[in-house]
Amino acid sequence: MTEDQLEQETLAWLQDVGYTHRYGPDIAFDGSSPERADYRQVVLPFRLREAINRLNPGIPVAAREDAIKQVTDLGIPSLLSANRAFHKLLVGGVPVQYQKDGETRGDFVRLIDWAHPEKNEWWAVNQFTIKGPHKTRRPDIILFVNGLPLVLLELKNPADVNADLVKAFDQIQTYKEQIPDVFHYNEILVISDGSEARMGSLSADIERFARWRTIDGVNVDPLGEFNELETLVRGVLQPAMLLDYLRYFVLFEDDGRLVKKIAGYHQFHAVRAAIQQVVSASRPGGTHKGGVVWHTQGSGKSITMACYAGKLLQQPEMKNPSLVVVTDRNDLDGQLFATFSAASDLLKTTPVQAGDRDELREMLASREAGGIIFTTVQKFALLEDEEVHPLLSGRTNIVVISDEAHRSQYGTKGRLDTKTGKYVFGYAKHLRDALKNAT
Description:
Strand content: 15-25%
Largest sheet: 6 strands, mixed
Number of helices: 14
Oligomer: single chain
Mean pLDDT: 95
Radius of gyration: 25 Å
Structural class: alpha/beta
Shape: globular
Number of strands: 18
Helix content: 25-40%
């Protein structure tokens, strides 16, 4: 198979899952169906304007035009910072202001209809020429959603023993230097040599590029181990899956150095399953048992937890839930709190950390909705005069997520203290007494 054949095969899979194929030279400014003014434009302006008008009929034309200007001119020189700024606009909408009935109103212009994939325009464009400051390049395939270049695929000749994944990765690094503008809008990078395929984020080194090994979230490598690219296309680039992924599974961590992280297939499907279970378990008459997500060491537990939190807080059925993150060590509490705080874009809220037992009780008793509270399980200890932990909140939309629970949060049954004749309970019981309707 040649590189061109691989490209055509990939385009066929993309069309099969819902993309319209367009050939780059045809939609160039001098092509048969022009979609941009010159080779420097990386966004398709006509497609973007049409989508914004379609998705935001209630917003005045001038405000919509302002949104287009904000998207096409991010005004940030740093590649990763610009990418982060665009991701915020993509997920949350573009902030605009306009006059109505004599007053200034603020609103958000939607770039994507997240709930209805079919109401967006999905294009797979091959051989899309881009003119940079000094060089002109032509990436193999770019996926445009409503005119925005969100996914870039770099393919290498399967028959060439020297054209491997490393060469494809290196090619993308060259593109970053020579045609940086297209990466302001990039969400996912894909590299493949036909048999192997990997996906990664804009800031990832090659070790962080990972396989996508499932289509349905149940069967692993369903097409066999030499069809990784087709599995990736059908498993994550399919429109409905890609929208869920872009909305909840892309995060930027900034603890002095900005890093972009994207979830692996195991994290994506674990979170989706956990959310489904928690929504069901927290309903009236539900079990209030969320379940267990098990990770091997180094498989990205904190990213799974952050993505889970970000998606959970935005579930309409949960009616603005509160999340209580419980660990059993101060250092673990601090680490997780730092991870969540660094990923505040995804969470759309600033987590808080309980300093001591009294502060935890005050936080839980006074909070009526929303938010993320971090605590250690030891802060659910009883006061000297208490035999049972007092109820801190009877709300049903509180979700407790605990890390390393096997060490400290089992055992809701008491043991008899032979000296006092009283039954003694562990923190697991106190936690459940304090938040009796939580999941």
